[in-house]
Protein: Dihydropteroate synthase
Amino acid sequence: MDTMGAAPGTGPNTGPMSVVRRIPRKKTVGDLPTDRTLVMGVLNVTPDSFSDGGRFLARAGTAVDHESAVHAGLSLHYAGADIIDVGGESTRPGAQPVDEQEEQRRILPVLEALFTGGAVVSVDTRHPGTAAAAIERAPGPEHLLINDVSGLMTAEHMPQVVAEGGVRVIVTHNRGDAQTMQSRTDYVDVVAEVIGELEQIRDRYRQAGVPAERIILDPGIGFAKTAEQNWELLRHLDRVVSLGHPVLLGVSRKGFLGELLAASEGPREPEGRDAATLALSTLAAQAGAWAVRVHDVGPTLDAMKAVAEIQSR
Structure:
């Protein structure tokens, strides 16, 4: 195992930080494959995310063990993840909000080290201040994406921050925050309404000066939707793809899969949902999705390559 000097801001330790291996240069979005659906690996630096919350907390309490988080992120990178999606605030239904300062304390040292390690990074944040801090620390706009799941509650200044930073943005459909979104599932036609509301959010970014090709759409599976509404959207993912923007799908280990796979003792635990996640990610690739966001990178990458081989003939 190689070592590298600790990246600025990685915590009080100034000695070597363990990494998986060296790479020669930093990747950009332009370096990513264009002949298959991309794989975005999930790295939650939070105490309360539904699947892996608390995984990177220091033993002393709630402080983040940044070295462990960086090691996990680089492991995803070397396992083949095209993008590492780093979050410092849980967006699961019912999660407590986190202020910008705490969010940045959790993720900025991790971002800096991942950039040093050569990864393309997506920052999962609803805070414009955190987005701006991430943009400031990125080697350049082609190394970073902003992934904002706020939906219709997107912060007023977020489009301007994205436009000025020149980065790509993932626009997710949502109708509320973690406390309220699951009470806002009143749809007449969920597919048509999700598409219409996605276009509303997208248009805010376009009006702020973000080029259309830098806007990625996410139908927001699990955000302000019931299980059946999630399934209905998945059946019609091609309609979201037909809007002409890159489409990201994130279903990994989500609760509606736990309900589908439930046994007598209750819903399937998150770690037992990877096979179902892989099936849906494969279908998304067949429907033309630009990327899938997953916890289990290796098998997903294999599946994306297999779909691409079929589609290339």
Q: What stands out?
A: The first strand starts at residue 3 and ends at 5.
